[in-house]
Design a protein that fits this description.
heterodimer; A: seven-stranded mixed beta sheet; B: mainly beta; five-stranded antiparallel beta sheet
Chain lengths: ~110, ~110
């Protein structure tokens, strides 16, 4: 089935140790998003790619980086995770072209920082 | 400022009862409004999506309404089931490239037997 896949589902890292979260999609969508969601809060958009065009949100810390090597894959790199970066990280896709299109979310990766 | 506000923040109901969740927004220019269901520890799953010309849309026991004039939406759940326990998030999209979404804080629904 076409879907948005996130790996791993659970990630534990140490304070300051770089970590990479992975997202892949079989929908062939143009747009891929990364969100951070903390407990009992709404998802917060970190950045998105429209094809190869990277769009960073103004308040996204420099500690968060992203790569999209091809249409199917998008990575979230946290260069030096702090305790405050512990959260659920959601990847989503959108066909693009017009904002009516539905965003499809992956199951998320829950990040724990020790 | 584009905002989406939901009420109530949390709700407890008995299995089999109906409930209605509210969403008010100030997003402009408005493109569409979506309701998502998010189970604990999972990604959001779309329930309904409506443009400004649509007043109501149903998906099984879920019925969403939209009043684009007053900028209000509601999600009505009929004959609730234990599996309806989740967070329900109202999300509004503005007319811009990339379909950026503005999320509400969600309503935490708990259905008790």
């Amino acid at each position: 089935d076409a879907m948005v896949i996130q790996n791993p589902r659970y990630q534990v890292t140490q304070f300051g140790k770089p970590v990479t979260l992975s997202c892949s999609q079989t929908l062939n969508h143009n747009v891929m998003y990364w969100y951070q969601q903390k407990s009992s809060q709404a998802p917060k958009l970190l950045f998105h790619y429209y094809d190869k065009d990277f769009n960073n949100e103004a308040d996204t810390p420099d500690n968060f980086q992203s790569r999209r090597p091809n249409t199917s894959f998008c990575f979230l790199d946290i260069r030096s995770p702090g305790l405050g970066d512990a959260a659920m990280y959601l990847c989503a896709t959108n066909r693009g072209g017009q904002s009516y299109n539905e965003q499809f979310f992956g199951p998320g990766t829950r990040l724990t920082v020790l | 400022k584009n905002q989406v506000e939901q009420s109530p923040q949390s709700l407890i109901i008995l299995e089999g009862k109906n409930c209605t969740l509210q969403c008010n927004y100030t997003v402009s220019p408005f493109s569409n409004l979506r309701w998502y269901k998010q189970d604990t520890g999972r990604g959001p799953v779309s329930l309904t999506i409506m443009t400004f010309s649509e007043n109501t849309k149903s998906n099984g026991r879920y019925t969403a309404t939209l009043d684009a004039d007053t900028k209000q939406s509601s999600l009505h759940i009929t004959a609730s089931q234990l599996s309806d326990s989740a967070s329900y998030i109202c999300v509004v999209s503005a007319m811009n490239k990339g379909g950026k979404l503005i999320f509400g804080q969600g309503t935490e629904l708990s259905v008790k037997p």
